[in-house]
Design goal:
5-stranded antiparallel sheet, alpha+beta
Length: 157
């Protein structure tokens, strides 16, 4: 079944694409808010191998599970996941961050972006990375502890 958010949008335009799918900018009919929607074909993801025992679908589902854990102002938020078993498409509805790329080819000023602006960008990037490190490492350690406890119980019997 299609998500509630997705039913109230109109398409704007494709803003990116990659080997897994494309990203389309949608606008909410209700409040005018924009969303970046990653659109994937499940059949394509299931055929595409990223490792001997892993498909691209595994990668996408891993991305979804990680994004569900995150809440930080410098990390794009996952709003909704739409996976209708009756259709081949899989959608990740993301917060849309308006703006331009840091330095598209040929668009950077010759003298750079300036020290104060560089400092602000760097601070935001480091803040997001520190958050990711703290939360993802904690999640990995929690999972590892569970596995170790399970193995200990097996060894006792």
């Amino acid at each position: 079944m299609m998500g509630l958010l997705f039913l109230n949008v109109c398409i704007a335009w494709t803003i990116g694409s990659g080997s897994y799918g494309k990203v389309v900018l949608y606008q909410s009919v209700k409040d005018g808010k924009h969303y970046a929607v990653k659109v994937f074909h499940k059949s394509h993801l299931l055929k595409l191998r990223v490792a001997p025992s892993e498909t691209a679908m595994t990668d996408v589902l891993r991305e979804v599970s990680i994004m569900k854990m995150l809440d930080h102002p410098n990390i794009v938020k996952l709003i909704e996941v739409i996976d209708d078993p009756l259709i081949d498409n899989f959608y990740m509805v993301l917060e849309y961050v308006a703006g331009k790329r840091m330095c598209d080819f040929g668009s950077c000023p010759r003298d750079g972006i300036g020290e104060s602006e560089s400092r602000r960008y760097l601070r935001d990037v480091v803040s997001g990375l520190m958050y990711l490190h703290a939360h993802l490492v904690q999640a990995l350690l929690t999972g590892l502890k569970r596995v170790l406890n399970f193995l200990k119980r097996l060894l006792v019997f």
